[in-house]
Amino acid sequence: MEELYIKLLMDDHSIIEKALVIIERQLEKSKKNWSAISTLLDVLWDYGETCHNMKEEKVYFPLLLERGMPPQGPVAVMLAEHQKERDYLNKLKSLLPEAKQNKELEQEFSNIFGEYSALTKDHIWKENDILYPMGRKFVQPDDVPYLATEFKRIEQESLGVGAYTRYKTLVDALEKETGERINLLASLPIDVISDMLDALPVELTFVDAEDRVRYFNKLDKDKIFSRTLSAVGRLVQQCHPPKSIHLVNQIIQEMKEGKREQATFWIHFNGMYLFIAYYAVRDENGNYRGVVEMVQDVNPYRALEGEKRLLDES
Ligand SMILES: [Fe+2]
Ligand SMILES: [Fe+2]
Questions:
Q1: pLDDT band at 1 (very low <50, low <70, confident <90, very high)
Q2: Does a structural domain hold residue 314?
Q3: What contacts 87, CB < 8 A, 6 or more positions away?
Q4: Which of 27, 128, 233, 285 has its CA 20 to 30 A from that of 81?
Q5: Per-residue pLDDT for 296 more than 70?
Q6: Ligand 1 centre and the CA of 99: distance in Å?
Q7: How many Å lie between the centroid of ligand 1 and the Cα of residue 86?
Q8: Residues 194 and 67 grouped into a single domain
Q9: Ligand 1 center to residue 162 CA distance, Å?
Q10: CA of 35 relative to ligand 1 center, distance in Å
Q11: For the whole model, what pTM was predicted?
């Protein structure tokens, strides 16, 4: 679990990254939603620049330097990148009104945005993965609550009460409006998704909103509960032993009614200790899409104690 001040900074990064990706995708389209692009550019300036970058420049970076981080180290690099981000954003803001009407300027806008976005994503990666972890060695215990309080103060002073929630809601709403829901799986071939789900030490089954089995992993592999292709398309009630059907029906009914999100059981079975869980699958509006069943032998985990930080022999 990250300290609160790091979580606050990384949550800001999520808003910024999402705004970048939605604009990038809009710019690839022949018919662009300029009003969404313009609003998101404002988000990048108002939230990214005047709020997030100021948390770093006015509070976090000075504290790191005060605690002994060398001034010519990563902080200097981050400050220089902030300045480049500002320069790009200023250019983009001034170019926007004409880029909407002029194809040549539209292309220039896209090119500059591409450079700005690449720089900012790289900057965020450096902070999340290098600077913040490195900074923890300099931040003293008393600084932890101080940083979080100062970040909230800057947020409130620059953008008013509840700014983080307002901007997050705005970007999420624009993601929906533009149909640019960011789904990382969309970039993976279906075979890779399938292999990834097979690599997990769990058996997964997905039952859709009409109670029909639609997917299970490890199709050609050994399974705890053997299952063949003929299960696909069948009602889940036909795939469970009669003595547990009433439970399955109750779980699904309660999930459909929105009264339940999960159900868990653990049983002894063929020398294994099985953890069996059902999780409701919902769309972003909370509508029931189905249920995923997860079965796992948790025997290997029951005896764990302390920590294991070294790699096993391969
Ligand atoms: Fe930064
Ligand atoms: Fe940052």
A1: low
A2: no
A3: none
A4: 27
A5: yes
A6: 28
A7: 11
A8: no
A9: 21
A10: 27
A11: 0.75
